[in-house]
Design brief:
With 482 residues, the protein is α/β, with parallel strands linked by helices. It contains 15 helices and 15 strands. InterPro entries: GH.
Length: 482
């Protein structure tokens, strides 16, 4: 007998209840913080293979002490709030006003980018069949989904979205573009090693190093970034990302000297840097933690100089949104990396995983070290009532779609407590299809989307998203008054 999607969901919930009833009951009784503050208590685990469910507090705006919910001010065609007026330049920019950072839209109004990443129809056979049945054409799809997203308080699209269809829309979402000069270079570089490096980190880079010192990389910088020229006059473009989650490891100096051959550009540059710093012929044992941190700044700045020069060459009008930091024990706690980022990025993009909610001291460090605002460009949680395996990806697992919505509200509240946050992109538009083997492993079998593979909306999630999306301006004022 063939089991359909709904039956799978019911079976998943029954199995979950039987296997975990005792554990969940015990953990529920231990929740005190949520009950004391009248917030929601949500049980979550790291993924479907983690047996340990833990209780977490989830704040929603209806339970914030003293907050009176009211729909945000009217917005203009970009989604900017028709409140105070700042300088209008015809393109998006940033400005700090009364201590809070804002994106300023082309008309000069304050703007928060509320986006969904990978706004693109899935390419599995199941997803394509469902798409053809519901939408028939890409033009119908983008028209309906743009209207749907705006109705639910979103105004933008994150990385890997269908830019051509978005731009063809009568009333486009504010979109972003990602180009991958280092990723494209790596695809060519690995061919010298017969398609496989002897040692690589999880992002696939040899010895966890990006090849910023290679002269060949410069060619790929120009080749890939030259493609942005066609967007340079588009007012609905927020800005550009370059690459994604590159490994800016803390011990990059050691790795360059320990693993690379002495005739490789990375070794030559790292050796000269260390010799000049020590005023002698220096070796690995001479390296200190201060050397390591300063070298990461030099190493990262080499990448920054190259990509930003190319962006300004081909499009001087739009924002540079960075390279989507990710690693909390490397770049996300490295002051030198953020100091350099502040020199070159207009907004610092960060993919936020492994924490239930943003932590204010960390957000404060990012702003203090860089002097720039930030945008969260990936984050999500997965619902076990979806019927999907939910074994892959970095997002948390919760039990229901409503709890995914609570997670969204809680996360946004914590982001807005920081006066440096100018937006967020939920990852992603559509669920993974477990039958699709054309994707990378991290996007294989999980409930990440606001819509499933059959193009059915997760209404309890979306309803909660809409509630807070429609209150962002007022909520920021409420939080600023605390």
């Amino acid at each position: 007998m063939k089991i359909n999607f709904i039956q799978k969901s019911v079976i998943a919930l029954i199995t979950l209840s039987i296997n975990n009833y005792s554990e969940l009951k015990a953990q529920k009784s231990s929740i005190n913080q949520a009950s004391e503050k009248n917030y929601h208590s949500v049980l979550a685990r790291l993924n479907a293979e983690d047996s340990l469910w833990k209780p977490y507090v989830a704040k929603t705006i209806d339970r914030l002490p003293g907050y009176q919910s009211s729909k945000d001010p009217a917005t203009n065609k970009f989604g900017g709030y028709k409140t105070f007026q700042l300088e209008a330049t015809g393109f998006f920019r940033t400005e700090k006003k009364d201590g809070r950072w804002w994106i300023v839209d082309p008309l000069g109004n304050p703007f928060i980018h509320k986006g969904v990443a990978v706004l693109n129809p899935g390419n599995s056979e199941n997803q394509e069949n469902a798409f053809n049945e519901k939408y028939k054409t890409g033009e119908n799809w983008i028209a309906k989904e743009t209207k749907f997203l705006k109705k639910n308080g979103f105004n933008g699209a994150g990385a890997w979205s269908n830019i051509d269809l978005i731009r063809s829309s009568a009333k486009p979402l504010v979109y972003t573009v990602i180009v991958s000069p280092m990723g494209t270079y790596k695809a060519e570089h690995i061919k010298k090693y017969n398609g496989k490096y002897e040692e690589a980190g999880w992002q696939g880079y040899r010895y966890d190093l990006v090849m910023v010192f290679d002269k060949e990389f410069d060619l790929y910088v120009d080749q890939e970034i030259s493609k942005i020229f066609k967007y340079k006059d588009d007012q609905f473009l927020l800005g550009y990302f370059t690459d994604n989650e590159l490994p800016w490891v803390d011990d990059a100096l050691d790795r360059h000297l320990k693993y690379l051959k002495k005739d490789e550009a990375g070794y030559i540059v790292a050796k000269k840097w260390l010799d000049d710093r020590k005023h002698k012929n220096a070796f690995l044992e001479d390296i200190t933690d201060a050397d390591r941190q300063d070298f990461t700044g030099f190493y990262f700045e080499t990448y920054m100089k190259k990509v930003t020069a190319a962006i300004k060459k081909y499009d001087p009008n739009h924002l540079y949104l960075g390279c989507r930091f990710n690693q909390e024990l490397d770049e996300l706690d490295n002051p030198k990396i953020f100091e350099v980022a502040g020199k070159y990025m207009d907004i610092i993009s960060i993919n936020h995983y492994r924490k239930w909610e943003p932590e204010q001291p960390i957000l404060s460090n990012w702003m203090a070290w860089s002097g720039k605002p930030f945008i969260i460009t990936e984050w999500y949680t997965k619902g076990e009532d979806s019927g999907l395996p939910n074994k892959t990806g970095a997002g948390w697992n919760v039990q229901t779609q409503k709890e995914r919505g609570y997670f969204y509200q809680n996360f946004v509240i914590e982001l807005l407590k920081s006066k440096g946050c100018v937006g967020w992109h939920w990852f992603r538009y559509q669920d993974n299809d477990p039958d699709n083997r054309k994707t990378d492993y991290s996007n294989r079998d999980s409930n990440k989307g606001i819509i499933n593979s059959a193009y059915q909306y997760y209404r309890p999630l979306i309803d909660n998203m809409k509630i807070i999306n429609d209150n962002i301006y007022g909520l920021s004022q409420y939080l600023d008054s605390k």
